[in-house]
Amino acid sequence: MVPFAGHLMPVSYAGIVAEHLAVRNRAGLFDLSHMGRIRLRGPDALTLAQRIQTADAAAMSPGRIRYGLICADDGGIIDDILISRESESFLLVVNAGNHEADLEALRAAASGLDVSIEDITDRRAMIAVQGPLAPTVMKRAGLGEACALRYYRFGSFLLDDASLLVSRTGYTGEDGFEIILDADEAEALYLRFLECGREEGVVPAGLGARDTLRLEAGMPLYGHEIDRRTNPFEAGLEFAVAFNHPFIGRAALEGIRETGPARRLIGLVVDGPRVPRQDCPVLLAENEVGRITSGTRSPVLKQNIAMAMVETGAAEAVDFQVSIRGHVVSGRRTALPFYKRKDHRNHAPT
Fold first, then answer.
1. Which residues, 6 or more positions from 249, have their beta carbon under 8 angstroms from its beta carbon?
2. Are 52 and 194 part of one and the same domain?
3. Does residue 350 surpass a pLDDT of 50?
4. How are beta strands 162-167 and 65-71 bridged, if at all?
């Protein structure tokens, strides 16, 4: 257990590699209650949802989810979020470490609008079931109807007397579900999921496996691949920016789109036994051209993998070197993500 964004969080239960492989091959259960959950209500909820983040909320019908970015005026990323459109409101799921900064940005953007900003984080919990057997666990737990959800869709479901908001989303590169429910009902549901998946080897998973899983899947982590000094084009997140509506930072991002970003995020496979970690220098022809943003030993690929932010002029090179605690080792650029699940049927976002 470690302190994390004001919470005590489990790094691992039975070991990071064991939990990682369980999610890839069976399923893992994550407590995500530390994530921030913020609801926007009122006549101007859509206006605020458009103003505060980069996805086109107006194009979303109820039940849809999109990945978006909260940006500063200069285009730097304040947070990356999921935004869900409910029938008369919008629900934002935000990073725990940026929770207060997001609330501050929302309140500033809401000036002059008729909208309420409701922080429901402490009243609602969040649990994720991730992995190829996630639908099996959901069905056994009594949530078979939720398995009809397509990728990046959500719906409301009843389980006994509990009201659940279930989405087909996740942060592991696998199929799975994220469930939001009243905090006082979370422990019972968590234990129910464990019991329903026990025969197949479904296990609890902690922050360590969550990090290695998302890295294999090429997903950014705030404070690593993205931060206040990084813009969406540098991080390869331009797909999350819709320029057909006004949002904070749009003018700056239009300028960056025109001139091109100064840096690019790339994937690397790194040779040798030493694992590259954040801030390790990345070299091209003995000159430093960037830094590692995240690195690990991939439990599935059995290789050292890393993402790195490098100068745009170097981003198309193939052969790099990485300095790891004074040792210079070879690395090769590779396409992201490092890992893709085999079965994508019915899960493509639309």
1. 54, 71, 72, 73, 74, 75, 76
2. yes
3. no
4. unpaired
**Model pTM?**
0.95
Domain containing 302 — which CATH number? 2.40.30.110
What pLDDT, on a 0 to 100 scale, did the predictor assign at position 346? 39
Cα distances (Å, whole numbers) of residue 94 to 106, 181, 226, 321: 12, 16, 14, 35
Alpha helix segments (H runs only) across 67-185: 99-109, 134-140
The H or E element that residue 8 is part of is strand 7-9
User: Hey, how many other C-beta atoms are within 10 angstroms of the C-beta on 323?
Assistant: 16
pLDDT class of 153 with cuts at 50, 70, 90 = very high
Contact between 224 and 28 under an 8 Å Cβ cutoff? The reply is no
Residue 319 buriedness (CB in 10 A; 0-12 / 13-18 / 19+): exposed
Say how many residues make up the chain. 350
What integer is the mean pLDDT of 20-29? 98
Considering the domain architecture, whether residues 85 and 205 belong to the same structural domain is answered as yes
Number of structural domains, the chain? 2
Range of the domain at 327: 262-342
pLDDT of res. 349: 40
Q: How far apart are CA 261 and CA 259, in angstroms?
A: 7
The answer to whether residues 31 and 54 touch, using CB atoms and an 8 Å cutoff, is no
Q: Confirm whether 347 is domain-assigned.
A: no
Residue 341 has pLDDT above 50, yes or no: yes
Residue 220 lies in a domain: no
The H helix count followed by the E strand count for the chain is 7, 19
49-93: pLDDT as tens digits: 999 999 999 999 999 999 999 999 999 999 999 999 999 999 999
Please indicate, yes or no, whether residues 287 and 150 belong to a single structural domain of this protein: no
